[in-house]
Design a protein that fits this description.
Helix content is 14%, strand content 41%. The protein has helices at 27-38, 75-93, 98-103, 105-115, 126-129, 151-154, 263-266, 387-390, and strands spanning 4-8, 14-19, 47-50, 53-60, 63-69, 116-117, 120-121, 157-158, 185-198, 204-217, 224-229, 233-235, 247-249, 251-254, 268-271, 276-286, 295-303, 309-317, 324-333, 340-345, 351-355, 360-369, 373-381, 396-403, 412-418, 426-440. A hairpin with a 5-residue loop joins β9 and β10 (204-217).
Length: 442
């Protein structure tokens, strides 16, 4: 049973507040924000309590999504509800951000009135709710197929070698304003997140790749969609198949609506997508990669004649030549008491700084082409530098995004709709890999 639902910005601003049962005062919002900001670490607990009131929250789109309850409710149920609520609001508002929530507060309150009744969850189905929701979504900028300003952020490619802007998949599913409502489109995203640990000798010590196939549908009616995966796609080492390079995962699960009668033989997923966003397949690969890790580091750590700490880093991108990484950030922990930093970077678009709060040097690279090698020389003033304090350098952490690339090699072979959609229906397939945790020991 839910007492309250509220949405806060990262600074604690009240964006949405809904009290269903009157069991807790509005000061619960302030209590929650004080508790969540008083905790140390980047990941506060999902469930917290204050007297007899329990807070359950998630972070999505840079916002706090919170429910409160005084009953002995299952926290797993409430977390799942919050995840479904964010998906629902993303479907109706187009994106999850402080700006979109502020612009669509009337629509969100209307959704909450339908989703929860007197604290009891009714439904989170986009298909069911679209029969009752009357408020139009407000978007800050109309979608245009010719607006390619954000292409590099996602690197979307169509089957006709066109490019879809990122904003295409962030508009509301229901709109009657202008041309937005007339576009019949479907997006299939293959998203992977990788966790890697590489030893100081360059040997891959640990790797986990979590992936999913997401479908976002803007089509008013689609009886069936057939998604063809690589014919060589296999689950487990004992099921290697096909004649090309093996595409293997260790575990795989499917949405309950996916039909698998053609999967074993032809690697085809069949689903009847409703409007909105859905995860049709999730998979996991552990312990090995079909190709080399995307980055390799060659560090040299020493002390110069003036007593300064010298760090010479050569970073190589082992992606294919036509691929590239974007938003690459390298974090190097340094000894306590490091005072100042001087730097020599291999290109002017890079930047680096010493951040005292994290006790680390942050090296940012906007774009890193495959096959390229970049270098950086850092000189740090460290009072009382000794051999012991030099051991405090590292391990190095990387964060990055790899558009148009999957670590497992999973590809969408074809995307077919039944019946064939008349008019200007569009199908988009996009690939992206994110770093979840990428650690290199030195």
């Amino acid at each position: 049973m839910i007492s309250q639902i509220f949405i806060l910005s990262s600074k604690g601003d009240h964006l949405i507040y809904k009290d269903f049962r009157g069991e807790a005062g509005k000061d619960a919002v302030t209590v929650f924000y004080e508790k969540v900001t008083a905790l140390t670490g980047d990941q506060p607990p999902v469930v917290m309590s204050h007297k007899e009131l329990h807070f359950v929250h998630i972070r999505q789109g840079g916002l706090y999504w919170v429910v409160t309850t005084t009953a002995a409710s299952s926290p797993f149920t409430l977390v799942e509800f919050l995840n479904r609520l964010t998906t629902l609001i993303k479907d109706y508002c187009g994106s999850l951000s402080e700006k979109s929530v502020r612009m669509n507060f009337a629509l969100i309150y209307e959704l909450l009135d339908e989703v929860v009744d007197n604290g009891y969850i009714q439904t989170t189905s986009t298909d069911i709710l679209k029969n009752f929701i009357q408020t139009e979504a407000v978007t800050s900028k109309p979608f245009s197929l010719f607006d390619l300003s954000n292409v590099g952020l996602f690197g979307a490619e169509t089957q006709q070698s066109k490019v879809a802007p990122s904003a295409a998949a962030t508009r509301p599913i229901m709109s009657t304003r202008g041309d937005q409502g007339g576009k019949s489109e479907i997006f299939v995203d293959v998203v992977e997140r990788m966790s890697v640990v590489i030893g100081s000798n360059g040997v891959l010590m640990k790797v986990d790749v979590e992936g999913e196939i997401r479908v976002k549908c803007y089509m008013p009616s689609c009886l069936e969609m057939r998604i063809g995966l690589n014919e060589e796609f296999s689950i487990g080492k004992s099921q290697l198949r096909g004649y090309g390079a093996a595409v293997r995962v260790d575990e795989c699960s499917f949405h309950q609506a996916v039909k698998l009668d053609e999967f074993d033989q032809h690697r085809i997923l069949k689903v009847c997508p409703s409007q909105g966003e859905h995860v049709v397949m999730q998979y996991l690969l552990s312990d090995e990669l079909p190709s080399a890790p995307p980055f390799r580091l060659f560090p040299t750590i020493e002390r110069d004649n003036g007593g300064r700490l010298l760090m010479y880093l050569k970073l190589r991108c082992d992606l294919p030549p036509k691929s590239s990484a974007i938003n690459v950030s390298v974090t190097v922990p340094v000894p306590k008491g490091s005072l100042s930093l001087s730097q020599e970077l291999s290109s002017p678009d890079q930047k680096a700084e010493l951040r005292a709060e994290t006790r680390a040097v942050h090296w940012d690279i906007p774009r890193f082409p495959g096959g390229a090698q970049l270098s950086a020389l850092f000189k740090l003033e460290v009072p009382g530098l000794s051999s012991a304090s030099m051991m405090e350098v590292g391990p190095v952490g990387l964060s990055f995004e790899l558009p148009k690339y999957t670590c497992t090699g999973l590809q969408i072979r074809f995307l077919r709709l039944t019946p064939v959609q008349a008019g200007s229906s569009q199908r988009w397939v996009r690939y992206v890999t994110h770093s979840d945790s990428y650690t290199i020991r030195i």
